């Protein structure tokens, strides 16, 4: 809980600095965030690479490892059904199409914009960005109270990159391997799911 509050406090501080334009210029316009992510992923990779037991998870689970991305996708669509009962302004297929982004906010929004669904494109961008942020902030709580697979399910496509460092930190290197697999599989599926669902709009 303490760690989640610390992460949330840092996030809020960033929001305030950005909103009031108090952040130093070098933090904003030179791609520093992207480089920091690369560095974090590098160190996570080194740490996981040194832990030979972590890779034993894949051998142990074998085909069962596919249940993780399958469960993530299924859980996301079930969540979309619940959200649809609360949001009456959107049709069911629209809610499901947005949810199909699975946390991958850039590509789904581009696909929807290119198909002429500009409003849904913006909604997909915001919704999936929000999913990524919530995963980053709540991973400590999710891992502690709902099991170590829950942050992986929450992160969706982001578990192979942006949310990977925090997932490894609070679930362990073995789950980091599962997170990478989950993220890669879902990232591959996202454009096909979004395109297929958008064709039904």
Features:
201 residues; mainly alpha; 2 domains; transmembrane; 0% strand; single chain; LysO
Structure commentary:
- With 201 residues, the chain is mainly alpha-helical.
- Helices cover 76% and strands 0% of the residues.
- Helix 4 (67-86) packs antiparallel against helix 5.
- The protein is globular and about 50 Å long.
- The termini are far apart.
What's this, in brief?
By secondary structure, the protein is mainly α. The protein has helices at about 1-20, 30-50, 50-60, 65-85, 90-100, 105-115, 120-145, 150-155, 165-170, 175-200.
Layout of SSEs?
Layout: H1 2-19, H2 32-50, H3 52-61, H4 67-86, H5 92-99, H6 106-114, H7 118-146, H8 150-155, H9 164-171, H10 173-198
**Roughly what fraction of the amino acids lie in strands?**
under 5%
Q: What is the count of distinct domains?
A: 2
Mean pLDDT comes to 84
Which term fits the overall shape? globular
Helix content: over 70%
What is the tally of beta strands? 0
Biggest sheet architecture: none
Structural class determined from secondary elements: mainly alpha
Number of helices: 10
Q: Secondary-structure element sequence? A: HHHHHHHHHH
Q: Rounded to an integer, what's the Rg over CA atoms? A: 18 Å
Distance between the termini: 41 Å
Low-confidence stretches: none
Q: Multimeric state of these chains?
A: single chain
Organism: Candidatus Beckwithbacteria bacterium GW2011_GWB1_47_15
Keywords: Membrane, Transmembrane, Transmembrane helix
Transmembrane segments: 28-46, 66-87, 107-126, 175-198
Protein name: Lysine exporter LysO family protein
């Amino acid at each position: 809980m303490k760690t989640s509050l610390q992460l949330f406090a840092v996030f809020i501080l960033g929001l305030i600095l950005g909103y009031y334009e108090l952040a130093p210029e070098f933090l904003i316009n030179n791609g520093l965030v992207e480089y920091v992510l690369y560095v974090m992923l590098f160190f996570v990779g080194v740490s996981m690479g040194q832990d030979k037991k972590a890779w034993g998870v894949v051998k142990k689970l074998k085909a069962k490892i596919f249940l993780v991305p399958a469960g993530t996708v299924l859980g996301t669509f079930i969540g979309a059904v619940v959200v649809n009962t609360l949001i009456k302004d959107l049709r069911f297929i629209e809610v499901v199409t947005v949810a199909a982004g699975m946390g991958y906010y850039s590509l789904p929004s581009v696909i929807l914009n290119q198909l002429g669904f500009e409003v849904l494109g913006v909604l997909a961008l915001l919704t999936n960005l929000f999913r990524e942020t919530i995963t980053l902030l709540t991973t400590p709580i999710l891992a502690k109270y709902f099991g170590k697979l829950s942050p992986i399910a929450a992160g969706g496509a982001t578990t192979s990159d942006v949310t990977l460092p925090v997932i490894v930190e609070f679930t362990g290197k073995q789950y980091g391997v599962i997170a990478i697999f989950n993220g890669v599989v879902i990232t591959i599926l996202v454009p096909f799911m979004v395109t297929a669902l958008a064709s039904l709009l």
